[in-house]
């Protein structure tokens, strides 16, 4: 299904008025409506979150900890409102989760899981917004091609810091302390 777009500038009220079965985002002043993630997409997002669970655990145990990782948070980055599949903040930057809708503090890490309706948005529109907001790391995960691209912010641009294709153990920044197997994310 192709992304539905409005031809006029969008407002936050448009996001609030969007149908519940769509993900609404404001990107560079335009409202973008995308279908809710398909099953393979949801499975990949869930498995990534589970794999990164040791980073989201409370400090003091055997796990690396140090992060707050959330599914589909609403990010308010300047005039842009984005909903990545996952986002993470280092605990020293966000020791407590604010009790309100939306996050104005840019995350340290974002993961976008590609689907046919969001592939263009993720690469062409959202990546520049994340960089301008000083997000340090972005993962672009594609369940169809079974690939992971890790981007690290460097000044005004992104550099490819790592890639992974198919199954097999990898240590992906910024979560190198845990070995992950992307093949598990794409399992049917």
Q: Can you identify the CATH class? A: Alpha Beta
The CATH architecture can be given as Alpha-Beta Complex
Distance between the termini: 21 Å
**What is the count of distinct domains?**
1
DSSP summary: helix tally = 5
Main sheet summary = 6 strands, mixed
Order of helices and strands: EHEEHHEEEEEHEEEH
The Rg value, from CA coordinates, equals 16 Å
Percent helix range: 10-25%
Poorly predicted runs are none
How much of the sequence lies in strands comes to 25-35%
Give me the secondary-structure category. alpha+beta
Defining key terms:
188 residues; alpha+beta; tt1808, chain A; six-stranded mixed beta sheet; three-stranded antiparallel beta sheet; 5 helices; 11 strands; 33% strand; globular
Report on the architecture of this protein.
This protein is α+β, with helices and mostly antiparallel strands and 188 residues long. The protein has one domain: Alpha-Beta Complex (tt1808, chain A), CATH 3.90.1570.10. The chain contains five helices and eleven strands; from the N terminus they run βαββααβββββαβββα. Strand 9 and strand 10 form a beta hairpin. The longest helix is centred in the last third of the chain and has 14 residues, at 119-132. It is globular, with a radius of gyration of 16 Å.
Helix/strand layout:
Elements: E1 4-9, H1 12-17, E2 22-27, E3 30-35, H2 39-51, H3 53-56, E4 67-71, E5 75-77, E6 80-82, E7 86-90, E8 109-113, H4 119-132, E9 137-142, E10 147-154, E11 157-165, H5 182-185
Parallel strand pairs: 8-9
Antiparallel strand pairs: 1-3, 2-3, 4-7, 5-6, 7-8, 9-10, 10-11
């Amino acid at each position: 299904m192709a992304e539905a777009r409005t031809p006029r500038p969008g407002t936050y009220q448009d996001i609030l008025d969007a149908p519940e079965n769509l993900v609404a985002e404001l990107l560079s002043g335009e409202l973008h409506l995308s279908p809710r993630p398909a099953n393979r997409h949801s499975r990949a997002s869930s498995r990534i979150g589970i794999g990164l669970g040791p980073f989201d655990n409370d400090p003091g145990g055997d796990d690396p900890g140090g992060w707050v990782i959330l599914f589909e948070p609403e990010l308010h980055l300047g005039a842009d409102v984005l909903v990545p599949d996952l986002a993470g903040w280092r605990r020293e930057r966000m020791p407590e989760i604010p009790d309100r809708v939306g996050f104005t503090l840019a995350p340290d890490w974002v993961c976008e899981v590609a689907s046919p309706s969001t592939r263009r948005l993720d690469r062409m529109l959202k990546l520049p917004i994340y960089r301008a907001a000083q997000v340090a790391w972005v993962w672009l995960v594609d369940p169809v091609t079974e690939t992971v691209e890790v981007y690290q912010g460097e000044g005004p641009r992104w550099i490819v810091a790592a890639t992974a294709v198919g199954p097999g153990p990898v240590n992906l920044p910024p979560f190198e302390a845990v070995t992950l197997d992307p093949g598990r994310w794409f399992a049917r």
